[in-house]
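Fold it.
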Amino acid sequence: MNRQMTKNTVTTFNRNTKNAVLSAKISKKCCKRAHLAGILLFGQVFSPGEIRLVTENPQIIDHTVTLIKNLVGVDVSDCVESFSAQEKLTVKDEERCKKILAFLGYENLLSAYTISESLFKCDKCKVEFLKGAFLSCGNVSSPEKSYHLEMTVAYFNLSRELLFFLKGLFLEAKYTKRASHYIIYYKESEKIVDFLGLIGATQENFEYSNTLIEKDIRNNVNRVTNCEMANLSKQATSAGKQISAIKKIFDSGIRDELSDELLETANLRLRYPDASLAVLATLHTPPVTKSCVNRRLNKLIEISEI
């Protein structure tokens, strides 16, 4: 797969995951409020003077505009801009910004860049908040490429709060800084599966799990194959050494000095150079054990070195 195809695969999986989140119905108003807060809080700007959300997925912008209109009663459809690869929602009207922040409970907070506990009115609100945050700042790679899910946050305090928020949902993540942004991420496949399951990306969760199983099977097959190849290589090396020793004995004229047992084993090894010790053991008359064949061949090597 070339680089462009790999990029398309990753982008498609990430888009499909977000579309799965978008397609889920949210029944309760408190959950819709928490969901909207997750989207806007983890956008580029969330303040009394400006609210800005940038995404490559136009459906996320449409979803956000609809939520603001239905919940807050504010029409921000005129604040949407389209670019070649991005969609942007930028609300700079102070009155509209303050109405949105007030509805979400942020009007009296010293900083809007915090996860307010007042958002969570029922047991489902936190999951809806996480869904919104993922739509806004999350990305997940296709399991065929790598195991990686991350959320990119522009503000340090907010990133730390998200880290502890995820821990409270039993989705403890890792943390790093990249340029001027803070990254909360998962590289463990099992945790990514849990995350996708929680946000309701059912098909993507299944695809991830299925890929894990397929990769595990392939890895096991490769391990077995590599082991068998190593054993065959070792067997071929040993057989070569044995045959060389037997030919040396025969060429030196001491063949007649060998016991009947050693002579039989020597002749069988020359006749079946690729046979394993187990196969050679069954070819003797009467059949002998594998360890018996091994002892006889080692004895022939000793004789050749005298």
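Confidence is low (pLDDT under 50) at residues 1-10.
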